[in-house]
């Protein structure tokens, strides 16, 4: 059971990293370096996949901590 929980923890960790890397940053793109961050496409970002990826990140983080607490409980008992 402990091995299964550890495998689930690794899978969730990889998924969290993947989802976070898929999200666009606050100053996405090289245009932000030169001050071109306020382009026309920047205002449409909220309608894309970023809100969904944000929710998926929160769910994955919650599952990560639940699994971590579960592993700690199994090790202590």
Automatic annotation (TrEMBL):
This is Protein-export membrane protein SecG. Involved in protein export. Participates in an early event of protein translocation. The gene is secG. It is found in: Cell membrane. The keyword Transport applies. The keyword Transmembrane applies. GO terms for molecular function: protein-transporting ATPase activity. GO terms for biological process: intracellular protein transmembrane transport; protein secretion; protein transport by the Sec complex. It is a multi-pass membrane protein. Its main location: membrane. One of its GO terms (cellular component) is plasma membrane. The chain crosses the membrane at residues 55-75. Keywords: Cell membrane, Membrane, Protein transport, Translocation, Transmembrane, Transmembrane helix, Transport. Belongs to the SecG family. It holds the Pfam family SecG.
């Amino acid at each position: 059971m402990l091995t299964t929980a550890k495998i689930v923890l690794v899978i969730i960790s990889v998924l969290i990293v993947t989802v976070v890397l898929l999200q666009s940053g606050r100053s996405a793109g090289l245009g932000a370096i030169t001050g071109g961050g306020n382009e026309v496409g920047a205002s449409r970002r909220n309608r894309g996949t970023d809100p969904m990826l944000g929710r998926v990140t929160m769910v994955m983080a919650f599952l990560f901590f639940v699994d971590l607490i579960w592993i700690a409980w199994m090790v202590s008992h």
